[in-house]
Design goal:
alpha+beta; 8 helices
């Protein structure tokens, strides 16, 4: 992509966006190849403890930051946890909430829907995976004068960034899990995050374990979710 010199529109700086236009056959091939690569992505719960270069994680999070966001506020914080002591605290707190959910909060329909996943309240992957990425959404910003500054479409913006992140991690050769113990307030306490941040997602990241099995589930066919007019 080429960018030309800057110009001003309505008192604000703009740069020209001029991506290289590809031949249609090239676009078909690259889009198909990317789909096939992403189609191989699976959520895992059996991680190897083998180390992963931190730079890989950082680059993937930087990719996440390229996602669109409301008014370009980029209302998120990504906390990367590799300290074993902190991971242990997170696991203990998460398992406490998960035990309550599996035994008291989840409906029978919900439990039936996840039975094929063969999950329970035990979450050893929270200590095994070399990294945990705790994603926080920033409900608002705090000005220098301590006043609150609005963010917009916060959940949508953070969700888009997390989608970019998962794609980047898979593209880099890593596996991940979107873990959502509910409620997740313990993440704020363990990581000592400020009041304007709310836990959004906890993502264990690493290589799959040597003996890693995933449910043999099928994705919907394109005709089940694409409607062309």
């Amino acid at each position: 992509m080429e960018q030309s010199s800057q110009k001003w529109v309505g008192g604000f700086p703009f740069v020209e966006y001029r991506p290289t236009r590809r031949p249609p056959e090239d676009m078909v091939r690259t889009s198909r190849d990317f789909f096939q690569a992403m189609h191989g992505r699976r959520t895992i719960r059996a991680f190897s403890s083998d180390p992963v270069p931190y730079e890989v994680i950082e680059n993937c999070i930087r990719t996440a930051s390229t996602a669109p966001s409301g008014a370009n506020k980029q209302p998120y914080t990504f906390c990367v946890v590799s300290d074993p002591a902190i991971k242990k605290k997170i696991r203990e707190a998460a398992e406490k909430e998960e035990h309550e959910s599996y035994h008291h909060r989840m409906s029978q329909e919900w439990l039936a829907d996840i039975k094929a996943l063969q999950t329970d309240w035990h979450k050893p992957f929270l200590e095994t995976a070399p990294y945990l990425i705790a994603v926080f959404k920033r409900a608002y910003e705090v000005g220098d004068d301590k006043s609150k500054k609005n963010n917009y479409y916060v959940s949508e913006s953070v969700g888009l960034a997390c989608g970019f992140l998962l794609a980047a991690l898979h593209h880099a050769g890593l596996a991940a899990l979107t873990h959502t113990p509910s409620p997740m307030g313990f993440l704020s306490r363990v990581l000592e995050r400020p009041d304007n941040e709310r836990p959004f997602l906890l993502i264990p990241v690493g290589y799959p374990a040597d003996d890693c099995w995933v449910p043999d589930q099928k994705r919907k066919t394109k005709d089940e979710f694409i409607v062309r007019y």
